[in-house]
Design goal:
By secondary structure, this protein is α+β, with helices and mostly antiparallel strands. The protein has nine helices and 13 strands. The strands form two sheets. It has an eight-stranded mixed beta sheet, with helices on both faces. The structure holds 2,5-anhydro-1,6-di-O-phosphono-D-glucitol (AHG) and manganese (II) ion (2 copies). The site of 2,5-anhydro-1,6-di-O-phosphono-D-glucitol has 11 residues, from strand 3. One of its GO terms (molecular function) is fructose 1,6-bisphosphate 1-phosphatase activity.
């Protein structure tokens, strides 16, 4: 390729331009959702910077023991929480935030804001200190209460089907932001020297089936019958076991390659571990938009009515055929349980 040809190549689509173009598809859009997504992307860049230097923070003097806010010595999940909340508060489009890191709803003070955001600011916390991929997960809902007042619990406790946008950031061998507004899924890769996300994975579609299963098999003594048998089935099929322990990273891999991720109910934890509002709903919206499926073993995740902010639910997500297969095994278990009663 000549230099002339190279110069004629497009520079690539930045996230900002992509969001702007999408907004033009909706003539009456006011641009608030676009701005909200840009706020999240900005916070993601800041968190990405903190993560990249996290190994240096304890080295005396390398980055100073504290910054002006005195934050450097806090754990990264607390820092990420502060960064995202601050970006969303400054943006002005969000009236209320619910975060995995905070017991109660956070009122931003922007009573005119039309949106509420549910966020897991730092997912995969056990991997923070060991240089393994971690992430951020977010869901955006339109408030149901009138503007001009503080957001309410009703604004937050909406089913996943009401999400207007959802996404995740993966801080991995490269940093990516993947999101949907209900019209397909697009992925952007961060170019650190330019400080921009570029469209790198347009129209992500997930394979209908796959050969990867992801579950914490250390818990297998506590698995119920259906899960145990489905895992045995995966082994019979010679599927590969892959489990990073960061939901975002496990999900992202399976989304692109095909596979199933499971965090089931166990004998000790009847609702599993993962949180409906901060983790399951957002990834379910994305997987469905990419042609995959998400279930609690019986029902579509996005139709589950949350009762409380921090509630958990069993989670089976990934390629449609594999999730349906897991549901078959779970249905057998539930049928047997019903017979025994
Ligand atoms: P978080 O760091 O936000 O609390 O989430 C941790 C979650 C999820 O990322 C991961 O898939 C799962 O916990 C791992 O749990 P186990 O260690 O029990 O397998
Ligand atoms: Mn998490
Ligand atoms: Mn978290």
């Amino acid at each position: 390729m000549t230099l002339h040809d190279k110069l004629a190549l497009p520079v690539g689509t930045t996230l900002d331009r992509f969001i702007m173009r999408k907004q033009e598809d909706f003539p009456y859009a006011t641009g608030e959702l676009s701005q909200l997504l840009r706020d999240i992307a900005l916070a993601a860049k800041i968190v990405n910077r903190e993560i990249n230097r996290s190994g240096l923070i304890d080295i005396a003097g390398a980055y100073g023991n504290r910054n002006v806010q005195g934050e450097d010595q806090q754990k990264l999940d607390v820092i990420a929480n502060i960064r995202f909340i601050r970006a969303l508060r400054n943006g002005g489009e969000v009236c209320t935030i619910v975060s995995e890191e905070d017991e109660d709803m956070i009122q931003t003070g922007n009573v005119q804001g039309k949106y509420v955001v549910a966020i897991d600011p730092l997912d995969g916390s056990s991997n923070i200190d060991v240089n393994v991929s971690i992430g951020t997960i977010f869901s955006v809902y339109r408030r149901v209460s009138p503007t001009g007042t503080e957001g309410t619990e009703q604004d937050c406790l909406q089913t996943g089907t009401h999400q207007v946008a959802a996404g995740y950031v993966i801080y991995g061998s490269s940093t990516m932001l993947v999101y949907t507004t209900g019209n397909g899924v697009n992925g952007f890769t961060y170019e650190p020297s330019l400080g921009e996300f570029f469209l790198s994975h347009p129209h992500i579609t997930s394979p209908q089936t796959g050969a990867i299963y992801s579950i914490n098999e250390g818990l297998s003594n506590d698995f119920t019958e259906g899960v145990r048998e489905f895992v045995a089935y995966c082994k019979q099929q010679n599927y590969s076991a892959r489990y990073i322990g960061s939901l975002v990273a496990d999900f992202h891999r399976n989304l692109l390659k095909g596979g199933i991720y499971m965090y089931p109910a166990t004998r000790r934890a009847a609702k599993g571990k993962l949180r409906l509002m901060y983790e399951c709903n957002a990834l379910s919206f994305i997987v469905e938009q990419a042609g995959g499926k998400a279930s609690n073993g019986q029902q579509r995740i996005m139709e589950l009515q949350p009762q409380t902010l921090h509630e958990r639910c069993p989670f089976f997500i990934g390629s449609t055929e594999l999730v349906e297969k897991a549901e078959e095994f779970m249905a057998r278990e539930y049928a047997e349980l019903a017979e025994q009663k």
